Each structure stands twice: as C-alpha cells, then as structure tokens.
Amino acid sequence: MTEQPHRIDTVRPLRANAVTHWDFEADVVVAGFGIAGVCAAIEAARAGAKVLVLERTGGWGGAAALAGGFVYLGGGTPLQQALGFDDTPENMAAFLTAALGPGVDEAKIEDYCAGSVEHYNWLVECGVPFKESFWGEPGWEPPHDEGLMYSGGENAAPFLDVAKPAPRGHVPQMADKKTGERGGGYMLMKPLADTVADLGVAVEYDTRIRRLIVDDQDRVVGVLATTYGKPVAVRAARGVVLATGSFAYDTEMIDRYTPRLSGRPGAAIEEHDGIGIRVAHALGAELAHMDASEVAIFGDPQLMARGILVNGRGQRYVTEDTYPGRIGQATLLQNDNQAFLVIDEASLEEALTTESSTPFFRVPPKWVAETVAELESEMGLPEQTLQTTVATYNRHAENGSDPLLGKKPEWVRPITPPLAGFDLRGLTAGFTLGGLRTDLDSRVLHVSGEPIEGLYAAGRCTSGLCAYGYVSGASLGDGSFYGRRAGKAAAAAGTD
Questions:
Q1: CA torsion, points 146, 152, 157, 162, in degrees to nearest 10?
Q2: Which intervals hold domain FAD-dependent oxidoreductase 2 FAD-binding (predicted)?
Q3: DSSP 8-state class, residue 316
Q4: I need a surface site. Which of 139, 267, 332, 494 has the fewest CB within 10 A?
C-alpha cells in the first residue's frame, strides 16, 4: 500500500514516490533560521544555489538572537591582536581539547581552530560589528558593548597550565543590552539575516518540518512540513540542511537522554524540540554525546570568585574564579545540585561595588553569622565540615595560594567573620549538547559511518565541538562555522 504523503504523525522518512505534488522546490532547503541556518543559506546562495529557508516561527533569529552573543573564536583574530592578546590555532586547540572533553572530536577541533581567523573575517565582512574593547572582570558576559572577554575558564585552573590563556569570547557590539531579551546575539543575527535578504533567498515562515523525504536509494530529496497544520512537500534538488536547534524542550528526550536536566531547561527556546535529530535518526543517523549538557548556575561570578563554594558536605569542589558554566556543570552533574556560597563581609561589599551584566543574581544572603561554626549550623551542614574547609582554605590563603583547587592569587584571601551564606541549591538550568554526528563538511553520518546522501546539519541539533565540557560561544561559533560548511557542501552536491 502506498503511504499517504499527508501523514505527519510519524518521523519516519517518506518515500518520494508517495509525493504527488511538490509545493516548493529549491536546490538547497534549510530548516531553521537561527545561526546555523542563516550561515548555511548565505554560503549556499553565494555558491549559486537556489535556496529556500523554512522557519517554524514568524521571524528569523532562533535562540541565537536571544543569546548573549559570544562567538568562540581565536588563533589570532584581528580583535585579539588589536587588544594585545597573542594566540595561535594550536594553542586554541590545546585548550578546547581539554575543556570540551572527554570524548571530543579532535579532527573537528583542529579544523575549527585552523579556520577561526577566516571565520571572524567572514562575519565582519557580513556586517557583524566587534568593538575593540576588552572586559576582564568575572561575569557571564560584558555589561557594556565590549567585544572580547574570557568565556571558558581559559585563565583559570586547570586550563591555564594546559595552554597559554587568551580571551576568545567575541561579542558583537550592541547598545542598550538586556540580558536574556536582546543582547549581542541579536547583533550577530541581524547583519546575517540582512545578508540573506540581500541575496534574494526565499523564506517560508510558520513552516515546521515533520519528516524527511527520500528516494528509493535513501537519498534525502526533500522534507514534509506543515504550515498552520497544512502539509506541504518541499523538494531539495541538491540537499537538505538541518539547523533546527537542540532538544532542550522535548520532555521525553530530556528524560531519556539527559535526565538531570528534567524540569530545568534553560538558555534555549521552546522551539528546540529535537525534531531535526528525530527525523534524521529515523533514517539511521548516528547520534553522539546525547547525555551531555551545559549548565548555568544562578550566581554572580564577582561574588563567587571572592568566596568559596561548598557542596552539601561542606567541601569545596570547583575553583570559584573559573567560567561560571563550568561551576554549573560541577554543581548539577557532580554534586547533586547542592551548592552554597560562603563569603565574608569585606569581600561581599567589594563585589557589590563592581559592575555586572546579571545584577538580578545579586540577592541578599540567606544566612549571616559571627562565626564559621554558627554559619555551619544555620546552613544545616554536618558539624566541623564547613569549619574544616574554611580553616584549610584560610591556612593557605594567608600566603595567597590555593593548592587544593588552584584559584588564582588575586582572588585568594582569608575568610574572616562576619560571614554571609548564599543558598544556591537547585539554582541551575541547562541545555543539551548532544545530537547528530557530522563530518567536517557537515554531512550527517549514518550509523555505518557513511554520509547520508543529501543530508547536512549544523548547530545544536548536532554534537558539534562539545563533548562534555562547554565554553560560552561554542554554540554560536560552531553553529555558524559548520552552518557555512553545510551550505557550501549542499550547494556543491550533484553539480559535478
């Protein structure tokens, strides 16, 4: 029995011979108009392909437009050089291999680092602005329009001994930023979306993909989508690019693959429902690192760097001056989501005089105490646990050192009463890092290891650069970089 092409209650691929009418046709069809999709569309169009973008919402941007806007770039970009920071692709690769593992795709990291300077120049050529200004304070992102910042713990233990520290968080210049609503991510997407418009690329909004369409040899030749619930068949003569985002908002996938994130999605948009992963997986695509996640902790980095973070046993577990996303991962994934920040009055007052891009994290402490023993008791920690931790920390802090975790001397000082305690238990949220396995040309790989003909992917629907670690800017960085690769490769398919 021939399958009805209008069936949308399955993610299994649809045979092309079941399609009686193509509603749209293009050389390259891009599903998703976020960072990966916009870059794929630009490169495919510049390569001479007729491109059609399908976007499920009413406008461009996706999660990228709401992001802080970090693009992780290095190896000696013009912005790094202008601000006096030395970097090389090899140095960048050494850091990323350590910070994004275990299990990183070393070939992809080497490839990304080798092409990083060219990619920066490409973004600038497309109109993305970067201000020649460096923000060197702890924080989630620059509070103003500074263009460069440490965004992955490069200058913190243990990584500062792995590779020469260099800031690689490149942030598009944006005035009047409002974190979580309109930031540097908007000024990354806006020039790129304008470039797509200038190239005459067609876009169909309010159109969401449901299934892949394949020929008798299982080559992807199009997608079945819906527009306001009405099925539409879209033919792709050369290739389909999946740029549909993560699965952070698909409850069943979260429960199945990353259960520690259940009930706590963050840093994504509700459209991130994993559809691109599911339709490709139904065709035999291999998945990678599906249990990996990035985790934010709702704490102020200026406070954390000046205090000590302890778990539910009163023990320190992470260097407090590192990338806060790394602190979030350590808290949720390794310490049962249990975290307390202990800081003395002088350090707290000093921290509160600094600028922050996330002032809403600066809430009053839950506990105040005149002694460590009193604070330990009020926090409900076992007797002597916090006291022992603070005594050990203070013993070395007298000499400005932290042999236990390696916090930099500039943040190390004895903790002396009066004290404040912040309850950070459960204050984490995250997004998924796993997805489709792709090669360096963004071709989606079958479980056999061979590319699936006609199918490409980039962005958070792929496993990307990250395995289990993360740095701010990795998503927008590899999404844009490999989105470009996907567009080029798809446009070149079938033209030999």
A1: -110
A2: 27-466
A3: B
A4: 494
At 84, list the tokens: 């006096």
Residue range 197-204: mean pLDDT, rounded: 98
Residue 233 φ then ψ, to 5°: -100, 130
The type of residue at 316 is R
pLDDT band at 179 (very low <50, low <70, confident <90, very high): low
Contact predicate 258/290, CB 8 Å:
yes
What is the per-residue DSSP string for 47-114? TT--EEEE-SSSSS-GGGGGS---EE--SS-HHHHHTT----HHHHHHHHHHHS-SS--HHHHHHHHH
Greatest CA span in the chain, whole angstroms?
80
- Residue 116: which H helix or E strand, with range? helix 116-125
Rounded Cα–Cα distance for residues 422 and 435 (Å)? 36
Q: Provide mean pLDDT across the span 156-180.
A: 89
Residues recorded for the chain: 496
Q: What is the DSSP letter of 261?
A: G
Whole-angstrom distance, CA of residue 73 vs CA of residue 52: 29
Kindly compute the dihedral angle of the four CA atoms of residues 355, 356, 359, 363, in this order, to the nearest 10 degrees: -80
Are the C-beta atoms of 452 and 446 separated by less than 8 Å? yes
User: Residues 444, 449, 455, CA angle at the centre, nearest 5°?
Assistant: 20
Asked if 480 and 40 count as a contact pair (C-beta separation under 8 A), the reply is no
pLDDT higher than 70, residue 496: no
Distance CA 413, CA 397 (A): 5
Bridge partners for 53 per DSSP: 30, 203
- What residues are paired with 225 via a beta bridge? 209, 232
Place of tokens 């045979």: 15
380-438 tens-digit pLDDT: 999 999 999 999 999 999 999 999 999 999 999 999 999 999 999 999 999 999 999 99
Q: How far apart are CA 216 and CA 486, in angstroms?
A: 24
Q: Tokens 């908002």 correspond to what residue?
A: 249
Listed residue (5, 9, 13) closest to 279, CA to CA: 13
Give the residues across from 421 on adjacent strands.
342, 367
Give the three-state DSSP class for 15.
Answer: strand
pLDDT of residue 1: 30
Report the Cα 150 to chain-centroid distance in Å: 15
- Supply the pLDDT for residue 352: 98
